[in-house]
Structures are given as C-alpha cells and as structure tokens.
Fold each of these.
Amino acid sequence: MAFQLIVLYHHPEDVVAFDKHYDEIHVPLAAALPGLRAYTVQRPVAGGGQRPAYHLVAVLTWDDEQSFLAAMASEKGQAAVADVGEFAVAGVTMTTGPSASVL
C-alpha cells in the first residue's frame, strides 16, 4: 500500500516570495527525496467568493511507510524539512499515512 505525506501550506503574507521560494528552491529539494514515486502540487482556487482554506497543497507518495521513513531520515529529507521553515512562516499542517485509490 502506498504511503503519503500531505502538506497543507497556510496563507503567506507575501505570496510572491512564498511561491518563488517554493517553486525554485523547495520543489527541487523535495523532488530529490529518495524513493519518491509521485509529487503533486495544487494551488487551491477560491470558490463562491470564499478564500481557500490553504494557499498550497503538496502530496508526496512513496511505495510504503518504510520508504517514507528512510527518505525523511536521509540527508535530502533533513534538508527539505529544514527548508520549510525558511519560507512557510505562516505555518503548515502535515499529515502522513497509507493511501489507496478508491476509483
């Protein structure tokens, strides 16, 4: 069963600076995580005049929990985690767990 890390980025004060750092610095760090099978990014859009709950949502997928844990313990994993504090000053919510397609 696949294992995912979902990162929900709260709305930054400086959207331009956040997006630039995320796209140019953080994406290459995260994309280099060992064993990573998929990495998707969503920038939610407003619906019905409401502000989306999050500025950006990232979903990273590994084959299993052991692969995820090894990636996070690696030098590249440590660098990616440390980088979050450099640009996501408004905060993040992270969740991990097994995932399965239902369709």
Amino acid sequence: MAIEVRPLTGAEIGAAIDDLAGLRIAVFADFPYLYAGDPAYERDYLREFAAAPDAVLVAAFDGARIVGAATASPMAAQKAEFRAPFEARGIDTATLFYFGESVLLADYRGRGIGHAFFDHREARARDCGAGAATFAAVIRPADHPARPAGYRPLDAFWTGRGYAPVPGLVTELAWQEHGEPDESPKPMQYWMRRL
C-alpha cells in the first residue's frame, strides 16, 4: 500500500495527538535523543503545540495508521527557551517558522517521506509569511558511548535541503534519557534556511 503524506491542521491535529505521542516516544528512544518518554507529558506538550496559531502536523499514513509525523508552527508561538537565542541576537522571531519533531518508524525510512515532511512544512511556513525556517538538533559527541555502530547523522540530508547550522546559535533543552534518574539539559544546535 502506498504511503500518504498530508498536512493536518486545527481539530485534525488534536485527533492525532496520541499517535504522535507514541511515535515521539518510540523514535526518540534511539540515539541521538535517548529519550525516556512519558505519555502524559507528551500529550500535554503536543496539545500546547496544537493550540499555536498556524500550527501544522504533517502525517504519514499507511492505511489508517500514522507511521510518521512532523510538526511546525511560528517561532513566535514557541516557549521562551526556544526563542531566546534568536532574540539575544536581535533576530525577529515573528519572521521565523519553527520545525519541531520529525519522527518516522524505521521500516518506512528511505522512501522520500522525510522530504515530503519538509516540503509540506516549508509550504506552510511560506503561506504564513515566514522568511526563514529553523529547527534544533541535539549535539552529541562522536565518541558518545550510546552511539551505535554505523550511525549516520542527518546533517547531509538537512544540508541537501538548504539548511545550515548557525554558528553559536545553541540552546539547551532538558529531558530524561534512558538510565538517568532525572531530566538533564542537552545542547541543541539551530539550523536555518531562507524560504
């Protein structure tokens, strides 16, 4: 069966929150995020995202099942810790669209779905008048003990889409990793491209 990738907005996002929460927990459990997910936290976080004006959830469907998803909304609607590095540099967050997670089950990778996620989110950003799109990726050292053999970061994919890391534009976000007793801050590098 062909995979259908399409944007969801408004009430459609709310109907997909449980599916996206499960995907985030499953996909982010792996390196480089190593996230020890919590379903209740996920649902609260995603409801807050869905309430943002102009938010979009791009979902990949295998029949009726959501097997991947990517989110985006105006940067001005994000939490202060997301906006702060831009504001500290005098970058107007009203001109930016923030791309949140992009999660896809392993069996569906390599089929162009990631490109479709970016295509739909970039189109939404342009429709909303954004001048640039940005996202943050966790920074992990090359010798991290949990790095699996043969791991390939997504840098080449992002660069191929026209994104580049912005030197010095780093924030910290906290989450609990597998094996950690509590949350700890992780450095996140912002990538950006003009639209």
Amino acid sequence: MKLYLSPHTCALAVDVVAREIGVPLDLVWVDVRAKRLADGRDLHRINPKGQVPALETDDGQVLTEAAVILQYLCDRHGADALLPRALDMARYRVLEWMNFLGSELHKSFTPLFRANTPPEYRPIATENVQRRLAWLDEVLARRDFLHGEGFTAADAHAYAVVSWAGLQAIPLGAWPHLQAYVQRIEARPSVQAARAAERAEIARRANA
C-alpha cells in the first residue's frame, strides 16, 4: 500500500499506526502547499481534495481522512489493542477522541498555518489552541493514555496534532502532564521510526 504524506501533518499518525501493526507502507512524499508529488504529478489526481494523508490500498482504491485510514488499518489487520472491535464501547471511546482531535484541535491550529490569517486574529487562534491543550493536560493528569491502560490509534493521532504546538512557538511546558504524555509517545519505536523518515524527507527538500 502507498501512503501519500507530507511532513508536519496528521499523516504522521497513519505512519505510526502502520508501524505499530507491522504493515509496510510505501511512503510517497508530497509538497502539500504546491499540491505536487516529487515526480511532478498533481496531488489532486490522487486525492481531489488536495490534502494528505491518502492511502492507496493494494486493490487500487484510495482512502482519505486520517481518522478513517486509521480505522481501516486497525480493522483490516485485527489491531484490537489500537482500536477495539465494533460494539465494544471502548471502540467508540477511541473514536470519540479521534473525532475531537480531527475537528476541535486540528481545526483550532488551522488559522495559525495560513498565511492569509489576519494578524489581529492570530492571538485569538492561539488562545483557542491553548484552551484545548490545557483541557488535554487536565485529562492526562489522571491517566497515561487517552483511553484505557495502553496506547491506541487516538494517541498516535493526538501526538501528530499536539506536536504542531512546537511549530507555532507554543511551548508545552505550561502543561506538564501533556508534555510528559508527548514524551512517552515519542519514546515508542514506531514514533521514532516515523519521525526519522520525516526528518530524512525534510533534509532531502532542504538539499534539493
């Protein structure tokens, strides 16, 4: 299968989960701003929405949206620890987190990444992000992971999105429980490998 991805996006969560499961993916790096693949192809020909992640399955279909791709990988490969099976309430708790991350937290960051965001709105957008990070810190004061006793797909998703705080000069030191959580996730071999691949792509672009 092919994973179309770009550094510093929630596609990182898909790469992490695939590595957790042991599913090899062919990583196809995309310039998401230019909407171009390294070979010059238009990203819209892969995903008409012009975004990553996109997963090309081994039967040629293309799935988009991080939360959906994560569910597909976990369900297809029986990764019940990462996403419990249907009709288990634990599954819906994990999906509840993933929906929060994909809608509330992800979208709170979006104005900070856009060049056309009015300067006067940026402090408001930063405050919106900080409010959600503070709430996560409160939750993580009582647990090591978002749901249950172990790492799930929701934690991979959270790690990818929360890491954007560093890109926006929002230090996590104000939220010690969240900071410790990020460090715990970052220590996982799957995350280290996915990050190494991302760093290699960033270096390749810098030297191109």
